[in-house]
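Hi support team,

I submitted a single chain yesterday and got back a structure, but I'm not sure I'm reading the C-alpha coordinate output correctly. Could someone confirm the output below corresponds to the sequence I sent? I've pasted both exactly as they appear in my results page.

Thanks,
R.
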Amino acid sequence: QQTTRIREIMLSNKMRLIAMVQPDAQFSWRGTRSAPSTMITAYAYYADWLASRQLGLDYNMETAQNLLAIYKKQAQQEPVLYRVLSMWWMNQMGLPVDTLLAGVDKELATIKLGEYTPQNPHESMVFAYGNQSAGHALALGISAQLHRERGTRVPEELKPAVAKAYDILAQYTNQPVAQSLLILAGKNTSEEVSAS
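Hi R., thanks for writing in. Yes, this is the structure output for that exact sequence:
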Protein backbone atom coordinates (compact mmCIF):
# COMPACT_ATOMS: atom_id res chain seq x y z
CA GLN A 1 0.00 0.00 0.00
CA GLN A 2 2.84 2.38 0.81
CA THR A 3 4.50 1.55 -2.51
CA THR A 4 1.26 2.30 -4.33
CA ARG A 5 0.99 5.65 -2.54
CA ILE A 6 4.55 6.59 -3.46
CA ARG A 7 3.86 5.65 -7.08
CA GLU A 8 0.73 7.82 -7.09
CA ILE A 9 2.71 10.79 -5.74
CA MET A 10 5.44 10.31 -8.36
CA LEU A 11 2.90 10.01 -11.16
CA SER A 12 1.04 13.11 -9.98
CA ASN A 13 4.23 15.16 -9.91
CA LYS A 14 5.29 13.78 -13.28
CA MET A 15 2.00 14.99 -14.75
CA ARG A 16 2.80 18.45 -13.43
CA LEU A 17 6.19 18.31 -15.15
CA ILE A 18 4.60 17.16 -18.42
CA ALA A 19 2.23 20.13 -18.29
CA MET A 20 5.20 22.47 -17.83
CA VAL A 21 7.64 20.99 -20.35
CA GLN A 22 6.39 22.48 -23.59
CA PRO A 23 8.67 23.34 -26.57
CA ASP A 24 11.20 25.95 -25.40
CA ALA A 25 9.98 25.62 -21.81
CA GLN A 26 12.49 27.09 -19.38
CA PHE A 27 12.62 27.11 -15.61
CA SER A 28 14.02 29.61 -13.13
CA TRP A 29 15.10 29.63 -9.51
CA ARG A 30 11.87 31.18 -8.18
CA GLY A 31 9.09 30.70 -10.66
CA THR A 32 8.54 33.66 -12.95
CA ARG A 33 10.24 36.14 -10.63
CA SER A 34 13.74 35.43 -11.93
CA ALA A 35 15.44 34.82 -15.27
CA PRO A 36 15.35 31.30 -16.74
CA SER A 37 18.24 29.06 -15.68
CA THR A 38 19.71 26.48 -18.02
CA MET A 39 20.78 24.32 -15.08
CA ILE A 40 17.34 24.35 -13.42
CA THR A 41 15.73 23.68 -16.81
CA ALA A 42 18.09 20.75 -17.42
CA TYR A 43 17.28 19.36 -14.00
CA ALA A 44 13.52 19.63 -14.69
CA TYR A 45 13.91 17.63 -17.92
CA TYR A 46 16.16 15.12 -16.15
CA ALA A 47 13.66 14.72 -13.29
CA ASP A 48 10.88 14.10 -15.83
CA TRP A 49 13.00 11.51 -17.65
CA LEU A 50 14.03 9.78 -14.41
CA ALA A 51 10.46 9.68 -13.10
CA SER A 52 9.34 8.12 -16.38
CA ARG A 53 11.93 5.36 -16.04
CA GLN A 54 10.97 4.64 -12.44
CA LEU A 55 7.30 4.49 -13.36
CA GLY A 56 7.91 2.29 -16.40
CA LEU A 57 6.55 4.91 -18.78
CA ASP A 58 7.76 5.73 -22.27
CA TYR A 59 9.68 9.00 -22.52
CA ASN A 60 9.44 11.17 -25.62
CA MET A 61 13.06 11.87 -26.55
CA GLU A 62 11.88 14.44 -29.09
CA THR A 63 10.86 16.53 -26.10
CA ALA A 64 14.34 16.09 -24.62
CA GLN A 65 15.83 17.50 -27.83
CA ASN A 66 14.31 20.84 -26.80
CA LEU A 67 16.80 20.90 -23.95
CA LEU A 68 19.75 20.89 -26.36
CA ALA A 69 18.28 23.89 -28.19
CA ILE A 70 17.75 25.75 -24.91
CA TYR A 71 21.30 24.96 -23.79
CA LYS A 72 22.85 26.21 -27.01
CA LYS A 73 20.75 29.37 -26.86
CA GLN A 74 21.48 30.60 -23.35
CA ALA A 75 23.92 28.38 -21.41
CA GLN A 76 26.91 30.62 -22.16
CA GLN A 77 25.43 33.17 -19.76
CA GLU A 78 25.80 30.81 -16.79
CA PRO A 79 28.82 29.68 -14.72
CA VAL A 80 30.81 26.85 -16.26
CA LEU A 81 29.84 24.57 -13.34
CA TYR A 82 26.16 24.96 -14.17
CA ARG A 83 26.84 24.17 -17.81
CA VAL A 84 28.83 21.01 -17.17
CA LEU A 85 26.29 19.85 -14.58
CA SER A 86 23.53 20.34 -17.16
CA MET A 87 25.60 18.25 -19.55
CA TRP A 88 25.91 15.47 -17.00
CA TRP A 89 22.12 15.26 -16.73
CA MET A 90 21.76 15.39 -20.52
CA ASN A 91 24.27 12.58 -20.87
CA GLN A 92 22.31 10.47 -18.40
CA MET A 93 19.27 11.00 -20.62
CA GLY A 94 21.18 9.79 -23.67
CA LEU A 95 21.53 13.17 -25.37
CA PRO A 96 24.72 13.91 -27.37
CA VAL A 97 27.10 16.10 -25.37
CA ASP A 98 30.58 15.47 -26.84
CA THR A 99 30.73 18.72 -28.81
CA LEU A 100 29.32 20.72 -25.90
CA LEU A 101 31.83 19.12 -23.54
CA ALA A 102 34.74 19.96 -25.84
CA GLY A 103 33.68 23.61 -25.73
CA VAL A 104 33.50 23.66 -21.95
CA ASP A 105 36.86 21.89 -21.68
CA LYS A 106 38.48 24.71 -23.65
CA GLU A 107 37.08 27.23 -21.18
CA LEU A 108 38.09 25.14 -18.16
CA ALA A 109 41.66 25.01 -19.50
CA THR A 110 41.85 28.82 -19.24
CA ILE A 111 40.68 28.98 -15.60
CA LYS A 112 43.38 29.26 -12.96
CA LEU A 113 42.31 27.26 -9.92
CA GLY A 114 42.88 28.89 -6.57
CA GLU A 115 43.83 27.04 -3.41
CA TYR A 116 41.48 25.25 -1.06
CA THR A 117 39.38 27.69 0.93
CA PRO A 118 37.25 26.46 3.85
CA GLN A 119 33.55 26.98 3.18
CA ASN A 120 30.47 27.09 5.35
CA PRO A 121 29.54 23.40 5.79
CA HIS A 122 25.86 24.34 5.63
CA GLU A 123 26.15 25.92 2.18
CA SER A 124 25.96 24.09 -1.13
CA MET A 125 29.12 24.10 -3.24
CA VAL A 126 26.94 24.19 -6.34
CA PHE A 127 24.64 27.04 -5.39
CA ALA A 128 26.87 29.13 -3.13
CA TYR A 129 30.26 28.74 -4.85
CA GLY A 130 29.39 28.00 -8.47
CA ASN A 131 31.59 30.76 -9.86
CA GLN A 132 34.44 30.44 -7.37
CA SER A 133 37.45 28.13 -7.13
CA ALA A 134 35.43 25.43 -5.35
CA GLY A 135 32.86 25.53 -8.14
CA HIS A 136 35.56 25.39 -10.80
CA ALA A 137 37.07 22.33 -9.09
CA LEU A 138 33.66 20.68 -9.17
CA ALA A 139 33.28 21.55 -12.86
CA LEU A 140 36.63 19.93 -13.65
CA GLY A 141 35.69 16.82 -11.71
CA ILE A 142 32.34 16.53 -13.49
CA SER A 143 34.02 17.07 -16.86
CA ALA A 144 36.48 14.24 -16.13
CA GLN A 145 33.59 12.01 -15.05
CA LEU A 146 31.71 12.79 -18.26
CA HIS A 147 34.76 11.79 -20.29
CA ARG A 148 34.87 8.45 -18.43
CA GLU A 149 31.18 7.85 -19.05
CA ARG A 150 31.48 8.84 -22.71
CA GLY A 151 34.60 6.74 -23.24
CA THR A 152 36.61 9.78 -24.32
CA ARG A 153 39.92 11.17 -23.08
CA VAL A 154 40.41 14.21 -20.90
CA PRO A 155 42.39 16.70 -23.04
CA GLU A 156 46.10 16.68 -22.17
CA GLU A 157 46.11 20.40 -21.40
CA LEU A 158 43.33 19.86 -18.86
CA LYS A 159 44.89 16.98 -16.91
CA PRO A 160 47.00 19.12 -14.52
CA ALA A 161 43.93 21.17 -13.62
CA VAL A 162 41.89 18.00 -13.06
CA ALA A 163 44.60 16.66 -10.74
CA LYS A 164 44.55 19.87 -8.70
CA ALA A 165 40.76 19.84 -8.68
CA TYR A 166 40.76 16.38 -7.10
CA ASP A 167 43.24 17.58 -4.46
CA ILE A 168 40.91 20.49 -3.65
CA LEU A 169 37.75 18.37 -3.62
CA ALA A 170 39.35 15.84 -1.28
CA GLN A 171 39.57 18.55 1.39
CA TYR A 172 35.83 19.21 1.32
CA THR A 173 35.09 16.26 3.59
CA ASN A 174 31.69 17.69 4.61
CA GLN A 175 30.44 18.21 1.05
CA PRO A 176 28.69 15.09 -0.35
CA VAL A 177 28.91 16.28 -3.96
CA ALA A 178 32.70 16.63 -3.74
CA GLN A 179 33.15 13.27 -2.05
CA SER A 180 30.79 11.60 -4.52
CA LEU A 181 32.87 12.81 -7.45
CA LEU A 182 36.00 11.39 -5.86
CA ILE A 183 34.31 8.04 -5.33
CA LEU A 184 33.07 7.97 -8.93
CA ALA A 185 36.64 8.67 -10.03
CA GLY A 186 37.91 5.79 -7.92
CA LYS A 187 39.84 8.09 -5.62
CA ASN A 188 40.58 7.32 -1.99
CA THR A 189 39.59 10.51 -0.21
CA SER A 190 41.92 9.77 2.69
CA GLU A 191 44.98 9.67 0.42
CA GLU A 192 46.59 12.04 -2.03
CA VAL A 193 44.65 12.06 -5.29
CA SER A 194 45.84 12.65 -8.81
CA ALA A 195 44.27 12.65 -12.27
CA SER A 196 44.12 9.36 -14.08
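A quick pointer for reading it: The chain has nine helices and two strands. Let us know if anything else looks off.

Best,
Support desk
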